[in-house]
Amino acid sequence: MASASGAFEEPRPSRPAADSADMSRLALTVTAAAGDRARVVVVGEIDVDSAADLGRVLTGTLHASAALEIDLARVSFCDCSGLRALMDTRYRARSRGQTVAVIDASPCVRRLLELTGTLGLLTATAESESDSPAVVRHERAVTESGGRNHPGLRQISAALLRGSDDADAVQD
Length: 172
Known about the structure:
Helix content is about 40%, strand content about 20%. It contains six helices and four strands; from the N terminus they run E-E-H-E-H-E-H-H-H-H. The protein has helices spanning about 50-65, 80-95, 105-115, 120-125, 135-145, 155-160; strands at about 25-30, 35-45, 65-80, 100-105. Helix 1 runs parallel beside helix 2 and helix 5 crosses helix 6 (about 155-160). The N and C termini lie far apart (about 55 Å).
Protein backbone atom coordinates (compact mmCIF):
# COMPACT_ATOMS: atom_id res chain seq x y z
CA MET A 1 0.00 0.00 0.00
CA ALA A 2 1.40 3.41 -0.90
CA SER A 3 1.36 6.25 1.61
CA ALA A 4 0.61 9.89 0.85
CA SER A 5 4.34 10.38 0.15
CA GLY A 6 4.27 7.54 -2.37
CA ALA A 7 6.42 5.19 -0.22
CA PHE A 8 5.30 1.59 0.14
CA GLU A 9 4.02 0.62 3.62
CA GLU A 10 3.25 -2.85 4.90
CA PRO A 11 -0.42 -3.27 5.79
CA ARG A 12 -0.93 -3.53 9.53
CA PRO A 13 -3.54 -5.71 11.12
CA SER A 14 -6.37 -3.69 12.53
CA ARG A 15 -6.97 -3.75 16.26
CA PRO A 16 -10.19 -5.30 17.45
CA ALA A 17 -12.97 -2.96 18.41
CA ALA A 18 -13.22 -2.04 22.09
CA ASP A 19 -16.34 -4.14 22.50
CA SER A 20 -14.75 -7.22 20.91
CA ALA A 21 -14.82 -10.48 22.85
CA ASP A 22 -11.07 -10.84 22.12
CA MET A 23 -10.27 -8.01 24.52
CA SER A 24 -10.83 -10.30 27.50
CA ARG A 25 -9.32 -13.71 26.87
CA LEU A 26 -9.34 -14.92 30.48
CA ALA A 27 -12.10 -14.76 33.07
CA LEU A 28 -11.63 -15.87 36.67
CA THR A 29 -14.44 -16.40 39.15
CA VAL A 30 -13.78 -17.14 42.81
CA THR A 31 -16.52 -18.77 44.88
CA ALA A 32 -16.78 -20.55 48.20
CA ALA A 33 -16.94 -24.33 48.05
CA ALA A 34 -17.71 -26.85 50.79
CA GLY A 35 -16.12 -26.12 54.16
CA ASP A 36 -13.06 -23.90 54.10
CA ARG A 37 -12.48 -24.57 50.41
CA ALA A 38 -12.53 -21.96 47.69
CA ARG A 39 -13.13 -22.64 44.01
CA VAL A 40 -11.63 -20.72 41.10
CA VAL A 41 -13.37 -21.21 37.76
CA VAL A 42 -11.16 -20.30 34.81
CA VAL A 43 -12.61 -19.51 31.38
CA GLY A 44 -10.63 -18.65 28.26
CA GLU A 45 -6.95 -18.83 27.32
CA ILE A 46 -4.03 -19.20 29.72
CA ASP A 47 -0.82 -18.04 28.08
CA VAL A 48 2.24 -15.94 28.82
CA ASP A 49 0.08 -12.80 28.85
CA SER A 50 -2.53 -14.10 31.29
CA ALA A 51 -0.64 -16.61 33.47
CA ALA A 52 0.59 -13.95 35.91
CA ASP A 53 -3.01 -12.83 36.52
CA LEU A 54 -4.03 -16.44 37.08
CA GLY A 55 -1.15 -16.93 39.51
CA ARG A 56 -2.06 -13.81 41.49
CA VAL A 57 -5.72 -14.85 41.80
CA LEU A 58 -4.81 -18.42 42.79
CA THR A 59 -2.27 -17.24 45.38
CA GLY A 60 -4.64 -14.63 46.81
CA THR A 61 -7.46 -17.14 47.04
CA LEU A 62 -5.18 -19.69 48.67
CA HIS A 63 -4.21 -17.17 51.36
CA ALA A 64 -7.89 -16.66 52.18
CA SER A 65 -8.89 -20.34 52.36
CA ALA A 66 -7.71 -23.70 53.68
CA ALA A 67 -7.93 -25.45 50.33
CA LEU A 68 -8.34 -24.55 46.69
CA GLU A 69 -10.27 -26.22 43.89
CA ILE A 70 -9.51 -25.13 40.33
CA ASP A 71 -12.03 -25.70 37.56
CA LEU A 72 -10.33 -25.59 34.14
CA ALA A 73 -13.17 -27.20 32.17
CA ARG A 74 -13.75 -24.07 30.06
CA VAL A 75 -10.11 -23.29 29.27
CA SER A 76 -9.60 -23.28 25.50
CA PHE A 77 -5.79 -22.96 25.56
CA CYS A 78 -3.06 -23.44 28.15
CA ASP A 79 0.70 -23.25 27.60
CA CYS A 80 3.64 -23.94 29.91
CA SER A 81 3.28 -20.56 31.62
CA GLY A 82 -0.18 -21.64 32.77
CA LEU A 83 1.24 -24.94 33.97
CA ARG A 84 3.88 -23.06 35.91
CA ALA A 85 1.20 -20.92 37.61
CA LEU A 86 -0.64 -24.09 38.63
CA MET A 87 2.50 -25.83 39.89
CA ASP A 88 3.71 -22.73 41.75
CA THR A 89 0.33 -22.52 43.48
CA ARG A 90 0.47 -26.20 44.40
CA TYR A 91 4.00 -25.79 45.76
CA ARG A 92 2.97 -22.80 47.91
CA ALA A 93 -0.08 -24.66 49.20
CA ARG A 94 1.88 -27.77 50.15
CA SER A 95 4.52 -25.70 51.94
CA ARG A 96 1.71 -24.25 54.09
CA GLY A 97 -0.08 -27.58 54.66
CA GLN A 98 -2.91 -26.68 52.27
CA THR A 99 -4.27 -28.52 49.27
CA VAL A 100 -4.83 -27.52 45.67
CA ALA A 101 -6.69 -29.73 43.22
CA VAL A 102 -7.80 -29.33 39.64
CA ILE A 103 -11.36 -30.65 39.82
CA ASP A 104 -12.13 -30.51 36.10
CA ALA A 105 -10.01 -29.90 33.01
CA SER A 106 -10.76 -29.29 29.35
CA PRO A 107 -9.23 -31.68 26.80
CA CYS A 108 -6.37 -29.28 25.99
CA VAL A 109 -5.50 -28.82 29.67
CA ARG A 110 -5.78 -32.54 30.36
CA ARG A 111 -3.41 -33.25 27.46
CA LEU A 112 -0.86 -30.72 28.77
CA LEU A 113 -1.02 -32.25 32.24
CA GLU A 114 -0.71 -35.78 30.86
CA LEU A 115 2.25 -34.91 28.61
CA THR A 116 4.13 -33.24 31.46
CA GLY A 117 3.30 -35.91 34.02
CA THR A 118 1.49 -33.46 36.29
CA LEU A 119 -2.07 -34.76 35.96
CA GLY A 120 -1.79 -36.93 39.07
CA LEU A 121 -0.08 -34.16 41.03
CA LEU A 122 -2.68 -31.53 40.23
CA THR A 123 -5.77 -33.72 40.49
CA ALA A 124 -4.75 -35.57 43.67
CA THR A 125 -6.73 -35.05 46.84
CA ALA A 126 -5.11 -34.51 50.22
CA GLU A 127 -5.69 -38.16 51.14
CA SER A 128 -3.88 -39.47 48.05
CA GLU A 129 -0.95 -37.04 47.91
CA SER A 130 2.47 -38.41 48.67
CA ASP A 131 5.49 -36.61 50.07
CA SER A 132 7.96 -39.15 48.69
CA PRO A 133 11.31 -37.75 47.55
CA ALA A 134 10.37 -38.60 43.96
CA VAL A 135 7.22 -36.48 44.14
CA VAL A 136 9.15 -33.59 45.66
CA ARG A 137 11.84 -33.84 42.94
CA HIS A 138 9.14 -34.06 40.26
CA GLU A 139 7.38 -30.94 41.53
CA ARG A 140 10.66 -29.05 41.69
CA ALA A 141 11.64 -30.14 38.17
CA VAL A 142 8.28 -29.11 36.70
CA THR A 143 8.29 -25.79 38.55
CA GLU A 144 11.86 -24.97 37.56
CA SER A 145 11.33 -25.93 33.93
CA GLY A 146 7.94 -24.24 33.64
CA GLY A 147 6.55 -27.52 32.31
CA ARG A 148 9.13 -27.75 29.54
CA ASN A 149 11.22 -30.84 28.99
CA HIS A 150 13.58 -31.43 31.89
CA PRO A 151 16.28 -34.11 32.05
CA GLY A 152 14.81 -36.97 34.03
CA LEU A 153 11.31 -35.44 34.13
CA ARG A 154 9.83 -38.08 31.83
CA GLN A 155 11.53 -40.87 33.80
CA ILE A 156 10.27 -39.56 37.13
CA SER A 157 6.79 -38.99 35.68
CA ALA A 158 6.62 -42.49 34.23
CA ALA A 159 7.74 -44.07 37.50
CA LEU A 160 5.25 -42.01 39.52
CA LEU A 161 2.39 -42.89 37.18
CA ARG A 162 3.30 -46.57 37.50
CA GLY A 163 3.24 -46.13 41.28
CA SER A 164 6.74 -47.49 41.36
CA ASP A 165 9.29 -46.93 44.10
CA ASP A 166 11.84 -46.75 41.26
CA ALA A 167 10.97 -43.04 41.01
CA ASP A 168 13.02 -42.46 44.15
CA ALA A 169 16.08 -43.85 42.37
CA VAL A 170 15.81 -41.47 39.40
CA GLN A 171 18.22 -38.59 39.78
CA ASP A 172 17.60 -35.15 38.30
